[in-house]
Design goal:
By secondary structure, the protein is of the alpha+beta class. It is built from 15 helices and 19 strands. Helix 1 runs antiparallel to helix 3 and helix 12 runs antiparallel to helix 13.
């Protein structure tokens, strides 16, 4: 009996024959940078996951957990990939207390289903990641991808109350709790945010929820250059206004938004004439009472005029989704637009982002690469190089451009990470830049949670 057949037989004994597969077409949906697993298994419980990991650890099989498979392109290629552990059968929402503003969801539950349940009680979870309709709850936490809502609510670490998980040596564990006032122990669960499945398999997640705002509004201002857009951001940040989202689009990204619909949201209408490829755009959303909305609109218009805006637009309620959906789904939109889209995430002080944007634009020009930029006012920018082809020469130019952005970020005392790129590029660059000072501590944490190195080996910083 072949090794794949033995693996299939062992895993089928745990999850059932109907929930295991070695079919190449089925496995293809879970490929990572061209690498397919040998076996796919869909457990239905934390107990089954523990048994699967116990079996895989004994045979030194590498396991990569996933559900919606929407973020598998993030991170380095796996050093080994034997088993795709798909958590889609863990799809329940076992606890929801609207009065306490808390909810618990199994890791494989679709994020869109969780948000729909909360909406029924006039509550929300400030998570609006790309691939929203396909993403799972656990995958959203493990990938660490942020959204425009971080401007008002922070990232997932700010409302993640706790998780339950299974370690690489098959130990079921939990960190945090299910209530807001949980102060016991260390916040170990926050280590799992952005860990790419290298520390454990998340089985359940507990969140703090928020009331749905009474009313909301949308505002857009256009500028001839980035200096005007950045000046408006500065004015808003130093004002008493509390906007919900605040993003800047460079002309190339505005043009894509005006002309393309994301494949992940095919029903989203094209924006109106208020987006064009010759202007920088500042997009803001805000909420509150009717009186608060009128005041916010008035002050935004005043600040935009003082910053030199060419035009301002108050977005009607039925027009907002065409823009907000694109801001949410901008990553799949760009991946569809270019066969070798390379997206670099940069974090720095807001005052330093202007220099980094300038360096990114120059790098694109030097390397003959179109550049689309999305800047979030909290100090995060996404720089996307969008070549029209993906040959060897193009990959070389992408490597130079990404390296130049990383150097600009380091010079500004910031950080960079190549979040999405062609597999060929991953062999030429370090996705996370220079080795971090705390890498030895990270290796110790990995050793504690996954002593046999069976969980997503090689996918994270430093080959963890």
């Amino acid at each position: 009996m072949s090794s794949a057949a033995k693996q299939l037989q062992s895993l089928a004994g745990i999850a059932g024959e109907a929930n295991t597969s070695t079919d190449p077409q089925t496995l293809g949906a879970y490929a990572i940078d061209g690498r397919l697993p040998g076996v796919l298994v869909r457990p239905s419980s934390a107990e089954e996951i523990a048994e699967i990991l116990r079996c895989c650890a004994a045979d030194k099989l590498a396991v990569i957990p996933t559900a919606g498979a929407t973020k598998l392109r993030i991170g380095a290629p796996p050093a080994r990939y034997d088993v795709a552990l798909v958590t889609t059968r863990l799809d329940k929402i076992p606890a929801y207390d609207p009065g306490d503003l808390t909810v618990s969801a199994e890791a494989g539950a679709r994020l869109s289903d969780l948000l729909a349940l909360l909406t029924e009680k006039r509550q929300m979870l400030p998570l609006a990641p790309p691939f929203l309709n396909q993403a799972s709850v656990g995958g959203t936490v493990a990938s660490g991808v942020d959204s425009a809502l971080r401007h008002r609510y922070g990232t997932v670490r700010d409302f993640l109350l706790g998780i339950e998980f299974v370690t690489g040596d098959a130990i079921r564990a939990k960190s945090g709790g299910r209530v807001v006032k949980n102060v016991a122990g260390y916040d170990l669960h926050k280590l799992f945010i952005g860990s790419l499945g290298t520390l454990g398999v998340i089985t359940r997640v507990n969140f703090k929820t928020f009331p749905v705002p009474e009313a909301s509004g949308g505002f857009l201002a256009s500028f001839a250059n980035e200096s005007g857009a950045l000046e408006l951001l500065r004015r808003i940040r130093h004002s008493p206004l509390r906007v919900t989202t605040l993003d800047v689009l460079n002309p190339a990204l505005a043009a894509l938004f005006a002309s393309r619909t994301p494949s992940t949201a095919p029903d989203a209408p094209l924006p109106g004439s208020w987006l064009c490829g010759s202007s920088w755009a500042v997009a803001a959303s805000f909420d509150g009472s009717d009186a608060a909305l009128r005041r916010t609109t008035s002050e935004l218009e005043g600040m935009a005029g003082e910053a030199g805006a060419n035009a301002t637009t108050l977005l009607a309620e039925d027009a907002r989704p065409s823009l907000w959906v694109r801001i949410r789904e901008w990553i799949p939109l760009l991946l569809d637009a270019s066969p070798a889209a390379t997206i670099v995430r940069v974090s720095a002080l807001p005052t330093q982002l202007g220099e980094i944007l300038g360096a990114a634009q120059l790098s694109g020009d030097r390397n003959e690469l179109p550049v689309a930029i999305l800047l979030r006012a909290v100090g995060v920018a996404y720089v996307a190089f969008l070549p029209g082809q993906s040959d060897e020469q193009t990959v070389g130019r992408l490597a130079r451009a990404a390296g130049e952005v990383a150097e600009a970020a380091a010079a500004a005392k910031g950080f960079s990470f190549i979040a999405w790129c062609p597999p060929e590029l991953k062999g030429q660059v370090s996705l996370w830049g220079k080795e971090r000072a705390d890498i030895s501590l990270m290796r110790k944490v990995k050793q504690v949670f996954d002593p046999e190195n069976v969980l997503s080996p090689g996918r994270y910083i430093g080959g963890l």
